[in-house]
Amino acid sequence: MIVDEEHMLPLAADTLSIAVMEIVDNALMLLIPGAMDAHLLDSTVGSPQRSFVVGVQQ
């Protein structure tokens, strides 16, 4: 894939942003005990996820 010079900076910025997000996410998963144990309907999960599940079930 050939990327024009005008698209190089946004592509590099998106790539860097995603890489940082993944590094932080993985670090938090390693540092917080039980971070992967929460399910969608648990009280530890925020209300946007709960409202999505409720909306899908209706």
Q: What would a concise description of this structure say?
A:
This protein has one domain.
Protein described:
The protein is mainly alpha-helical and 58 residues long. The model has no long low-confidence stretch (mean pLDDT 76). Helix content is 66%, strand content 0%. It has one domain.
Secondary structure: elements and pairs:
Layout: H1 5-31, H2 47-57
Helix residue percentage: 55-70%
Question: What shape does the CA trace take?
Answer: elongated
Order of secondary-structure elements? HH
- Please report the number of helical segments: 2
How does the helix and strand content classify structurally? mainly alpha
Report strand %.
Answer: under 5%
Question: Which spans of ≥5 residues are poorly predicted at pLDDT below 50?
Answer: none
Number of strands: 0
Assembly state (oligomeric): single chain
Mean pLDDT: 76
Indicate how many domains the architecture comprises.
1
Q: Report Rg.
A: 18 Å
Mind describing the biggest β-sheet? none
Gap between N and C termini, in Å? 44 Å
Give a quick set of tags describing it.
58 residues; mainly alpha; 2 helices; 0% strand; elongated
